[in-house]
Write a structure and sequence with these properties.
Blueprint: H1 2-50, H2 55-82, E1 90-93, H3 95-108, H4 110-113, E2 116-122, E3 128-131, H5 133-149, E4 155-164, E5 167-174, H6 202-212, E6 216-222, E7 226-234
Parallel strand pairs: 2-4
Antiparallel strand pairs: 1-3, 4-5, 5-7, 6-7
Helix pairs in contact: 1-2, 3-5, 5-6
């Protein structure tokens, strides 16, 4: 029937995406090696010179070290986006990767999280999906990080885990300023970011992981009131 035809099309699209990322992943691995090696040499030389440099010169050498680290970070994120994941799917309760992602965020952003009010609402029993738990945790962590960074001062971070019509859903909401309309079509594209020091791979990685697990990710935003990112995955 129609449903079977649609599923076949989706399956073919997933296969094509995997083939595409396999090719891009090979290129990314080679690029990573070619960039990381000279970046490491530059950083090492700058650190060596900085030991006996004058304070004014040391300031510029510190900038070189910082930018070499930033370049390495860009390459690392691109490699994570492009290379095959080695997925290990299993049937999991969505509550587990959500809890781990929140704990990870609290460890990494302890000071910042002190001014954020957290609301975690998990349906009981939590919906179950067939996916790699580490990948789902990464998706949730990226969405949580975006939400926290969208709120410059205090704010409310809300995570909802629900199911509806055979779909498991994870919604991450913030009370930030919302996303400008002009930025919305670019949100899930690689290297798009509105942050001064951001790399812009977080949401692109989210979309890739979710789509490879047969799901989708979308955003709703209201200027001045916040945004909600929703991940939908087939229930196991």
């Amino acid at each position: 029937g129609i449903a079977l035809a649609v599923e076949n099309i989706r399956q073919q699209q997933r296969i094509q995406r995997r083939e595409h990322f396999a090719t891009v992943g090979e290129l990314a691995a080679g690029l990573a090696h070619e960039v990381r090696t000279p970046a490491g040499v530059i950083k090492g030389a700058a650190q060596f010179l900085s030991r006996e440099a004058r304070p004014k010169d040391r300031e510029f050498l510190d900038i070189i070290v910082e930018e070499a680290d930033r370049l390495n970070g860009v390459v690392t994120e691109f490699l994570e986006y492009a290379r095959p994941t080695g997925r290990r799917p299993q049937t999991i309760s969505l509550g587990e990767p959500v809890e781990k992602a929140i704990a990870h965020l609290l460890r990494e952003r302890a000071e910042r999280m002190g001014s954020v009010r957290r609301h975690v609402l998990v349906q009981e029993p939590a919906p179950r999906v067939n996916a790699d738990p580490a990948e789902i945790e990464r998706v949730v962590y990226n969405l949580l990080t975006n939400a926290v960074e969208a709120m410059p001062g205090t704010g409310d971070l809300t995570v909802r885990v629900t199911s509806e019509g055979g779909e498991a859903r994870i919604a991450v909401e913030d009370t930030g300023p919302g996303i400008p309309e002009a930025d919305r079509p670019q949100l899930f594209r690689p290297f798009f970011t509105t942050r001064e020091r951001g790399v812009g791979m977080g949401l692109a990685i989210c979309r890739r992981i979710v789509e490879e697990n047969g799901g989708s990710v979308s955003v709703e935003t209201t200027p001045g009131r916040g945004s909600r990112f929703t991940v939908k995955l087939p229930e196991a």
